Amino acid sequence: MSNTDLIPTALLARKAIVYVRQSSQSQVMTNLESQRRQYDLVDVARQHGFSDIETIDDDLGRSASGTVARPGFDRLVALLCAGQVGAVLCFDASWLARNGRDWHHLLELCGLVEARVIDHDGVYNPCRPNDRLLLGMKGSISEFELGVLRARMLDAARSKARRGELRLSVPFGYIWHREAGLGLDPDLRLQDVIRSIFTRFHELGSARQVLLSMTKDQVHFPRPSDEG
């Protein structure tokens, strides 16, 4: 890990990218302290001597597991490829990526353009073997943590299922009754509309034609019941 005064002037003349991300919409709505601490990295970039600072927060509410698109991360990669980035700032390695493919690809690009990676622990130069090793370990730990979290969530779901308490999202027309379990929504208007959909699909043979038919007849879904 390099000292802050070792950032070359040529890199300080480039753009510093502050990457802000949270994994889910619930975190975006409730975990405001995490957001604040990530946006505060703009001040950290200034302290390191950068004047051109860009915040990328397009990926708020998006997982870094590699299973969903991340336009913000893609934009970061594009700026690195163009040689416009002098440093990438993130609060922790897990904010940038929780899968080895994205993490090591990012480190490779940073190494090629000599861009620094800055987090709450310090400044890293991916061109240096020791810094690259440490960053690689951070990425591996982040990926391992995600696997542990998934395993715990799956075990918890299985435990609920064994007790008969597991509740999954159900489509319109069905509802979880407190005592009877899964069943039809008690709203007869909703049941009639759903039956009408299947009847029209049997007659028309196309979901699009069903939609056009219902729109023409001004058939709308009533509000579903909520009996938890």
Written description of the protein model:
The protein is α/β, with parallel strands linked by helices and 228 residues long. It has helices at residues 9-12, 25-30, 32-39, 41-47, 71-81, 93-96, 100-113, 129-163, 188-204, 207-216, and strands spanning 15-22, 53-60, 85-89, 116-119, 122-124, 174-177, 181-184. Strands 2-1-3-4-5 form a five-stranded mixed sheet, sandwiched between helices. It has a two-stranded antiparallel sheet with strand order 6-7. The protein is elongated, with a radius of gyration of 25 Å. The mean pLDDT is 83.
How confident overall, as mean pLDDT? 83
What is the count of distinct domains?
2
Report the top-level CATH class of the largest domain.
Alpha Beta
Walk across the major sheet and give the strand order: 2-1-3-4-5
The CATH superfamily of the largest domain bears the name Resolvase, N-terminal catalytic domain
Radius of gyration: 25 Å
Unreliable stretches: none
Summing up helix and strand content along with how strands pair, one would put the structural category as alpha/beta
Order of H and E elements: HEHHHEHEHHEEHEEHH
CATH topology of the largest domain: Rossmann fold
Count of strand segments: 7
User: What summary fits the major beta sheet?
Assistant: 5 strands, mixed
Beta-strand content estimate: 15-25%
How much helicity do the residues have?
40-55%
Distance between the termini: 53 Å
DSSP helix count? 10
Question: What is the approximate shape?
Answer: elongated
The CATH architecture of the largest domain comes to: 3-Layer(aba) Sandwich
